[in-house]
Amino acid sequence: MRYYFDGDSNLYGYHSDEKPFTFPTKVKQMGAVDHRRKIYVEDYVYTYLYQYGKSHSCTEKVAALVGRQIEIDGEEILMICGAIQGKDATEENGTLTFSAATWEYVGSQMDKYFQGMTLVGWVHCQPGFGAFLMSKDEAFHKLYFQEPWQVLFVVDPVDKLDTFYIYNEEADVLQQAKGYFVYYEKNEEMQEYMLDHSVVKPKEAKNPEEKQENEEQEKVEKEETKSQEGPRRRRRPTPEERIDAAQEIRRVLQRRAKEAEAAQRSKYTMLTSVSCILCVICLCLGYGLFSNLNRLEDLETKMAMVQDSYTVLAENVEDVKVQAAFAPRMTAAAEEETEEPEETQKTEGRIHVVEAGETLGSISQKYYGDGNGVEKIMNANGLDNPNHIVCGQELLIP
């Protein structure tokens, strides 16, 4: 079994006299900055691990991470520049681990593609199970990856979750790293490994241009396969071919990213439309409820008015009943009062108002039927002359 640790070999010319180490300029931060150890993952490595995790019906897989560990001004930096498939891995005690054949394969691939690099950690792809740390994975890591800077990268390619786990200060327990960086730089070693160990199945062409691109890609893959049939016939690709292949891979990845973004945008558009429709419905319901509240208030006001009117009507009816109860008594009293004047009139006489053209004779004729009553009228009214009466004069008729 072979182990690869950091030696005097150089990675991309870092710490060499020609090109000193500089931090990558094009980076994307994932999570927070972990000052205990800064982890940088090259973009091809990050992309390839997700492709590798989704391949073969998204089964559980392991892989090895290669790169270099350096320290600058007391700050530990881990550069992950390559990933190697964990072929021939075996399952022990319910967990997938590296077998002897896996270690041999990793060593041969490091000699072939990643010369001068170091084994900096390993990867556990567990589709659909999240990016949690399993106790068996931690035990395996402590057994085979004992350097304090070696890491475990847990990836869930289905739910797109990933987490780095690093040793604590005592180097006896794995802890979750706060975050890491994905950087973009020229990585010919990983490009060559990706071309020779592609895990992406070409999609069916939707138009002639895509069909031509797929045919060209298949042609390149066939040529690469033929070049690997024997050690004598194998030819390493030229820098121009590597650059073209890298551009092709990036173009495919960008196209897929655009398709995913368009699908996501359509979902957002649909959700926005549904939200707008729901808002309009809520506004209509609110307006209807407000109108109904106003109608209820008007109805309550009218009911109160009817109640007041009913109360007044009930009071009036009660007064009428009281008046009706006392009406016979009042009628009897009125009759008594009426009878008394009649008796008084009988005893005192009647009053006659003299009209124009009347004489005492005509008045006597009216009340007594003849003229014999003239003298009675004169005596009752104290008249001396029977012809001396005026219009409007009141005469007592005895």
TrEMBL record:
Keywords recorded for this protein, A-Z: Membrane, Transmembrane, Transmembrane helix
PROSITE patterns: LYSM
Residues covered by the LysM domain: 350-397
Superkingdom of origin: Bacteria
One Pfam short name: LysM
TM segment ranges: 268-290
Basic and acidic residues bias: start-end ranges: 199-211, 217-245
Ranges where the record places region Disordered: 199-245
Name of this protein: LysM domain-containing protein
Organism: Anaerotignum lactatifermentans
